[in-house]
């Protein structure tokens, strides 16, 4: 993974000192809250329902074991012993104190971490595929380019006061595990007809009040032009994005308003002036960054370790965990492991300090000291030898981290909701917990098969409910929490926005509604179709009928 | 309002003309864009220096053709959140080749100085004189930058791979040449 | 007329606080002064704004309450959760301290 050199380190150290000074000026009264708010937001510090909330950046979801240990320490020393992994691969702490945050950030800087630009109207954490570098279908490692974009976008003098937040995602494989088409800019690594590797650029995706699937602005962009092209897009957006209505200020609104063709023309026109300029990284710099993402020293192994295969046959529980947690690794004899942070009835994405330390140790023992955070709020150990899988699984079990539900119905993605968030209209976590408990039976869970369920506590859609196969949106109806259900969303390369099924359900009936939806699917499915395939075949009608027929 | 240039408070020789009023007889006259648009011919015939102030929704293309006639362009930052003028500043400098005074007016706070400077702004209308010492400090708070901008400060990728002649290692920071890093 | 109280966050540590009778701020909702008129509510908001200027608190706002058995109960779900703590972590927040 990427390691800071003296320049990267200098920047985060100076940033900590700058923020320490800003906090002091705030506490001394030299800055009002209006003046301070944008400054603290640009360091990821929100004011929430119970306390401040700090969002720490995990660049494209990659963490070293050392960093994970530091996150555990931070949870203990500055917070209440836990953290929350988010739908943008970051981690959030819910109880930091303003006057301790500079020290907290200083500790993060010791392990090459920060909270820069995790909030505010600037370019946010660039996210990428959690299987980067190890998936068989990968064309090129997206983390290289995520790191290039991270550096270019950090403290960018022109783009730190955009009309609204700006989110970029990169996928390195045709199967999009980074949900790029739900982002303001989505980047897919592709090959052109001649086999040259470059980027397909999408623009104007987003969720929130107006979910939109991103549109292709450029079918093929040679690698060397990446930063100048992004700069052109941002410059057009910075000038033309809405400034007087925060609900209409994202780039998706601008692209919809002017149309993708005129928007492309504006971007290309700007780009003509700045391509082939000092923005282009020297080849040596790209190579330097690439080197950090070279594969680790894999052993020369055969695929299908016999001990592992035997254990799989004899231990049904182990086998069931493998069915959901295991993905094929491109190096023979290795495996990708997804660690579920969705225990039965638990809080999706939360991890205790002890669990963080446990996975850090397991990363050291079994996966070259590296972990990833997924946008589905789980963790990944990307380079595990097949022969180590059984021991790893046993260790995970000891820490409540071996729930065999990755990719299944109880692998719920949920925002913190009204339990934590100032913006929320309804609680999301209790709904997730109830659904998880209702569907605790593992045989049933596995029979239902691959399905995504996303819950957001308000229209801002931080739970990404629009692109869940089943989406749940919490709303406030005259002071009572209600839940609107959508069906048919999808966050992969066939991104689709879910359809609203009908009137909202109260907090008791929404869990029944999910059960009705699942049962309807099980009735209708053909030939082992997964949920989304069935939905796309039959549409909303059968589900509407079973959900509302008796009313 | 106090004016900062080159890290010091300086006298502001410019007089602002309000829209709709008579044009004062002064050497250095700053007019809002609306007035420039209305009275362009008259203004161009005057002796003395001319300046135009652009509001946040008035992009520099509007005056791009007249820049050789202007000694001052003022850019409004109506609120902290409105960042359009950062792009305007860069376009004025890098696209349209404007070389005279480029002034930030409005919501100009110390924590924006570094960004403004990097985008080519070289004068700041501030709320109080203390801001002058703030300015120099603010510009030194972050000594390394990742991306090229108007100020032509060498970004980190350049420092990494092309150290200055006569040294074995890239310098630890490029802060020494902040103020004089670009000569306009 | 709805009864109202004032809540805010303490500047230094973000702790949720409530305006008391004596113009100080308490972490316990039971100490909150309750306004039973628009005028009083306005006055309380002015006091809160002063506390903002004094750098004690941030983001004060009025919220509706009812008073039952001398217990002050927020009417809104949001303020109920704010007063008690996250409903999904009853080991945190005032709900925990109360036990």
- Reported by name, the CATH topology of chain B is TIM Barrel
CATH top level label of chain B: Alpha Beta
Number of helices of chain A: 18
Question: In CATH terms, what is the architecture of chain B?
Answer: Alpha-Beta Barrel
Q: Between the first and last Cα atoms of chain B, what is the distance in angstroms?
A: 23 Å
Number of separate domains of chain B? 1
Per the principal axes of the C-alpha atoms, what is the gross shape of chain B? globular
Which percent range describes the beta-strand content of chain B? 15-25%
Describe the structure.
With 551 residues, chain A is of the alpha+beta class. Chain A has helices at 6-28, 33-41, 65-78, 101-110, 142-153, 226-240, 251-258, 260-274, 283-292, 306-314, 316-325, 353-366, 389-398, 429-438, 442-448, 509-524, 531-538, 541-548; strands at residues 45-47, 52-56, 62-64, 82-85, 91-93, 127-128, 168-171, 185-191, 197-203, 215-222, 326-328, 334-339, 350-352, 370-373, 379-385, 413-414, 453-456, 470-477, 480-487, 499-500, 505-506. Chain A folds into four domains: 6-110, Sulfite Reductase Hemoprotein, domain 2; 134-289, Sulfite Reductase Hemoprotein, domain 1 (2-Layer Sandwich); 306-398, Sulfite Reductase Hemoprotein, domain 2, CATH 3.90.480.20; 413-548, Sulfite Reductase Hemoprotein, domain 1 (2-Layer Sandwich). In chain A, 38% of the residues lie in helices and 17% in strands. In chain A, the strands form four sheets. In chain A, strands 16, 17, 18, 19, 20 and 21 form a six-stranded mixed beta sheet that branches. In chain A, strand 1 and strand 2 form a beta hairpin. The termini of chain A are far apart. Helix content of chain B is 26%, strand content 18%. In chain B, 41% of the residues are buried. The model of chain B is unreliable at 166-184 (pLDDT under 50). With 99 residues, chain C is of the alpha+beta class. Chain C has one domain. Helices cover 28% and strands 30% of the residues of chain C. Chain C has three helices and five strands. A five-stranded antiparallel beta sheet of chain C has the order 3-2-1-4-5, covered by helices on one side. Chains in contact: A-B, A-C.
